[in-house]
Amino acid sequence: MKLYINEKLVEVKVEETAFSLRDRRKKDADIVILNGFILKEDAVLKEGDKLSFIKRGETPSQEDMEGLLVSRHTPGVHEKLKKATVGIAGLGGLGSNIAVALARVGVGKLVLVDFDVVEPSNLNRQQYFIKHIGMKKTEAMKKLLEDINPFITVETVDTYLDKTNIEEVFKEAEVIVEAFDNPVCKAELTTTVLTRMKDRYIVAASGMAGYFSNNTIITKKLGEKFYLIGDGVSEAKVGCGLMAPRVNIAANHQANTVMRIILGETEV
Q1: Which of 13, 38, 94, 170 has a CA 20 to 30 Å removed from the CA of 123?
Q2: Which UniProt keywords apply (predicted)?
């Protein structure tokens, strides 16, 4: 019988179980993961199953690391995500959180675009740390993602996006994420993609300020390849700021929508 152990195809005896294999191959493993699920008791194995053995506190080899990163995925997901290229326009509250989520699930290539630097006020909702203050957001985010998942490709573009360069910057991206906080930039990116890059998907956002109900942030499909996330009304203004919880809800709606598109699930 053939199955995968830490993402490597191996042949084992038909009568083997998850725990018997652990005892023979990595007896000191604290965690046994079968097809994305941590086992609490032994399980019978079948052809094509995916097993991972993990010892808490142990740093795995580079070869094993990628397999362990994807061991909690639903089987078949990683292969599709690894081939995808996603562009993210803006690395603020939305974009920085989207980039982290997509890196964690293993999207093969991210094209990250921003021209700004990390400021102290960014830390209330963006995926940066005090040590990043003053750094270019592109540089800071690339370093963060390298620490999260060194097996993806991260391309950074330190520029101001407008209709003259959007097509060139995102020429490889199958899905483009609009993560700006400027309404003019939001509109220009969305219009450019919808009118001049009709074979690409765009995932945009509008309305995630304040601390209103979680449940008002939703994902809408507004065209064949256009998705809009948010409540559509809660803009940042005096007395209604942007804070991590609600911004992150919208960001993860966007990230999950991107992942679903890559996996062929294009309906909301």
Answers
A1: 170
A2: Nucleotidyltransferase, Transferase
